[in-house]
Design goal:
The chain is α/β, with parallel strands linked by helices. It contains four helices and 15 strands.
Length: 184
């Protein structure tokens, strides 16, 4: 339970750069849950993943999975509840987001609308920490995206990239070095 709470607190603080992880209180969670559809989906995903490991809570898990599915349809955010994703997830604009089962995503993952992270030949991407993905990007296959990477809007990423780069295009290629804070 402690790990779940820490992940949720990291998610809440990721939406507000003025709010440190250790400052997150219940009121911050409630405000974020009410105001931000992307947070509502990521919170419910995390809760489902945690409840699935608790056999005594099976009825609650089933109800939460139903709620999670309704939220996915309502907001157009389809994220497999079994993916591995670190804390600090921010979904800035909802709609058209698909992240397939099996994806492994690090901490401080920042995405926009209309992105796809999916499998090819049963292999899914591994995405490092501090990655920002622009609107309309597609990341597919058994590739690895390094830490501190910015993926430009509309990019099609089908090969691996190292740490600290900015990539864009179709097919994606390195267009610069990422020497600062991730944002697009």
């Amino acid at each position: 339970m402690k790990q779940l709470i820490e992940l949720i607190k990291k998610d809440v603080s990721a939406y507000d750069s003025n709010l440190a992880f250790d400052q997150v209180k219940l009121k911050h969670f409630v405000i974020r849950y009410i105001k931000t559809p992307g947070f509502k989906v990521s919170y419910t995903m995390r809760l489902c993943k945690w409840l699935e490991t608790k056999p005594l809570l099976k009825p609650i898990y089933i109800l939460k999975r139903l709620k999670y599915r309704r939220l996915q349809v309502k907001y157009g955010i389809q994220i497999g509840h079994r993916i591995s994703v670190g804390g600090g997830v921010t979904i800035n604009h909802y709609g058209g987001i698909v992240i397939g089962q099996g994806a492994v995503i690090g901490e401080n993952f920042n995405i926009r609308n209309n992105i796809t992270i999916g499998h090819s030949k049963y292999k899914t991407p591994i995405i490092g920490d501090n990655v920002t993905v622009g609107a309309g990007a597609i990341i597919i296959g058994g590739i690895t995206i390094g830490n501190n990477v910015i993926i430009g809007a509309g990019s099609v990423v089908t090969k691996s990239f190292p740490d600290n780069v900015i990539i864009a295009g179709n097919p994606a290629k390195v267009i610069g070095a990422n020497e600062g804070k991730n944002s697009i």
